[in-house]
Structures are given as C-alpha cells and as structure tokens.
Specification:
The chain has one domain (10-249): Ribosomal Protein L22, Chain A, CATH 3.90.470.20. It contains seven helices and eleven strands. It has helices spanning 24-27, 32-40, 44-65, 134-138, 141-148, 155-173, 245-249; strands spanning 10-16, 73-75, 89-91, 99-105, 108-114, 119-125, 184-186, 195-198, 208-212, 219-226, 239-243. The strands form four sheets. Strands 4-5-1-11 form a four-stranded mixed sheet. Strands 6-10-9 form a three-stranded antiparallel sheet. Strand 9 (208-212) and strand 10 form a beta hairpin. The radius of gyration is 18 Å and the shape is globular. The structure holds coenzyme A. Coenzyme A is lined by residues 50, 53, 78-81, 86-88, 101-104, 120, 122, 167, 170-171, 174, 176-178.
Length: 253
C-alpha cells in the first residue's frame, strides 16, 4: 500500500451516549424532523443516543467549518423515496462543502467528517451479527466460505468487520441497504479493507477507499470515502480518530 493522499483526511469521532443527558439545550438544536423522530423513541437510552448523535454531528461540523452548531441546517432527503430520513448533509445558501455521516451501535455514536468527498461510516457490535442467517443475508457465497476458515472464536469479530466494511461502502453512496449486501464484496477481515466488487443490477459500482477504524472491544467500525478524479486509489486513507466524550460533555460551552 502506498502513502496517503494529502488533503484527503477523514476524521472519525466516537462518543458514548449517556455522557450528556438529553438536555433541553441539546434538544433545542434539533430541527422539526429530528424532534419528531426523538418523540417516537421511548427508551431513555435510545433518546440519549439519538440526541448525542445529532449533537455530535453538529459539534463536529462546527469544529471543521466554523458554522456554529445552532446555525446549522441539514437536509436528509432519502435517495429512494424523497422522505426526510436519508443521509444528513449541511444545507443552506453558501453552506461549506463538508461531508458527514453518523452511525450507532450499543452505547457508541460515531461521526465521520471529510472536506474531500462523500463518505459513509458504520459501527457494529460483534454480537449483533451473531444470528442464524447472517451469512446468507450479508455475505457473498465466497465470503461465507472464507468466514468458515476463521477460528470459531474469531468469527464474531470477522462477521462484524465484514458487515461494517460493507455498510460503510453502502452509506458512502447513500444507497444503504437498497443495494443488497450480497452484491457487495469486500476483502476479508484479516486483510486491509478494500471494495472488491459491486454487482447491483441498477446502481453502478462506486470507486471508493475503505479503512477500518479502531473502536471499543467487541465493536468493529469502518469508513468509506468516495473517490474524486485524481485520487491515488492505491494510497491508504488518512483516518484520524478522536474520543469525543469531552466535546459532547462540554456542550453548551
Ligand atoms: C443507511 C442505513 C443502512 C442505516 O442503517 P442503520 O442500522 O440505521 O445504521 P447506522 O446506525 O449505521 O446509521 C444511521 C445513520 O445513518 C445516516 N443515514 C440514513 N440514511 C442514510 C443513507 N441512505 N446513506 C447514508 N447514511 C444514511 C443517518 O444519519 C442515520 O442516523 P439518523 O437517522 O439518526 O440521522 C439504512 O437506514 C438504509 O439502508 N437506508 C436506506 C433504505 C431504506 O430503508 N430507506 C427507508 C425507506 S425509503
């Protein structure tokens, strides 16, 4: 693998929900669609995680663009149906060209940001992928065979890494699970993350770079960044990771 492309860094922030209570000041940041979604969440841990995620998103955008959290507006038009539940994007006249994505698993909220190109991030709990039918739903036949080559104690890790890499790629294009994960082939978990093939009949294969992101024990995380003309696709992604608990806890400063 070569070096990294200068100027193409991706920053990945990880916070744990519960660091911040669902405070009025955090909820006040949310727009109408986000509040409606929050209102539908009944369990305190789900409400805390959702609020933490959308607070983190804004604090990360503020840190990278200078646009104050309270002034940010997001569009989240679903690619499939046009509804307001798709990939968030900073909106408004003159909004800086910043690319963001969010993911949740267990207590973790992960936000990735890049000035370079659209991206996707995914965090997965190993045990959440431990169900009958995972291989059929998530892996190609070749990958399912490769999984069996892993020691049985390593399979929860391997499944989660496979899934995080695939979902990060699916989120980078914004199609999500509209594209069947079995139409997407990535390198096995013991090899550097790469997209190998994408055979959806309607959605053309993207060109992207993938990287694993260190997370907590029992979790896997990956980020995918779409390529722009001139990118060195052999170069690794420059991924900078940040523990964002203090950032979240510091709001409102
Ligand atoms: C994108 C998708 C894979 C995320 O699944 P998930 O289990 O919620 O996974 P994560 O926790 O990793 O990510 C959630 C975040 O991804 C972001 N997101 C939503 N849709 C997205 C998309 N199409 N592409 C990329 N990111 C997306 C959002 O920020 C979301 O968090 P939020 O709702 O709090 O804003 C899934 O929602 C999907 O496949 N969506 C497209 C198809 C679909 O079902 N559409 C709804 C009916 S039209």
């Amino acid at each position: 693998m070569g070096g990294v492309n200068p100027g193409t860094a991706v920053d990945v922030y990880r916070a744990r929900a519960g660091v911040v209570a669902v405070t009025e000041s955090a909820v006040a940041l949310l727009d109408g669609a986000e509040r409606a979604r929050l209102d539908r969440l009944l369990r305190p841990q789900d409400r805390a995680r959702y609020t933490t995620g959308h607070l983190l998103l804004r604090l990360v955008v503020q840190a990278h663009t200078g646009v104050p959290a309270r002034e940010q507006r997001f569009s989240r038009t679903c690619l499939l149906c046009g509804g307001p539940h798709g990939k968030p994007r900073l909106a408004g006249d003159g909004a800086p060209d910043v690319h963001v994505n969010l993911s949740y698993a267990g207590p973790y909220v992960v936000a990735a940001v890049s000035a370079h190109a659209p991206l996707g991030v995914d965090v997965e709990q190993w045990e959440a992928t431990d169900f009958a039918g995972f291989s059929t739903a998530a892996l190609t036949r070749a990958e399912a065979q490769e999984l069996l080559g892993f020691d049985v104690v390593d399979r929860p890790w391997a499944r989660a890494v496979w899934w995080a890499r695939k979902e990060a790629a699916l989120k980078a294009t914004g199609h999500g699970l509209r594209v069947d994960a079995t139409d997407v082939r990535v390198t096995p978990p013991d090899r550097p993350a790469r997209l190998l093939s994408w055979t959806d009949a309607e959605v053309p294969a993207p060109t992207l770079r993938l990287a694993d992101v260190p997370t907590g024990p029992g979790y896997a995380c990956a980020v995918a960044v779409l390529a722009r003309p001139g990118d060195d696709l052999e170069a690794g992604l420059d991924v900078r990771t940040h523990d964002a608990d203090d950032l979240v806890a510091s709001f409102p400063a």
